Task: inverse folding
């Protein structure tokens, strides 16, 4: 029980950091999707639009590098972006995983696996 309480307290302390990182990941993912669609339109369109294409590619690179930095930050604290849902962050705490999800501007967390003492 003490172990479970410590894990939950640690999770609660991490919420502001996780909320910030989750928002950055979500914003960057959305921008990457928008830029990829824009790039496809430029590549299919008529004429030579080299300058515009290079500009979009540069922005794509910047946001992809930002996502890589987010992932590195998360790894340092024992967390990662969920591969299926970039709005979800999974953190390993002691012998369990805790999932942080942001919905309606509230960050919640839940255990993914039951505690071994339960």
Result:
């Amino acid at each position: 029980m003490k172990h479970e309480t410590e894990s939950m307290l640690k999770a609660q302390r991490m919420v502001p950091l996780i909320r910030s990182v989750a928002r950055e990941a979500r914003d960057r993912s959305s921008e990457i999707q928008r830029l990829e669609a824009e790039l496809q339109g430029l590549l299919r369109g008529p004429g030579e639009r080299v300058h515009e294409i290079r500009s979009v590619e540069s922005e794509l690179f910047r946001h992809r590098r930002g996502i890589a930095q987010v992932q590195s930050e998360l790894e340092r604290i024992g967390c990662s972006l969920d591969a299926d849902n970039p709005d979800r962050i999974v953190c390993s705490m002691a012998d369990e995983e805790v999932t942080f999800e942001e919905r309606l501007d509230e960050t919640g967390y839940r255990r993914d696996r039951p505690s071994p003492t339960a």
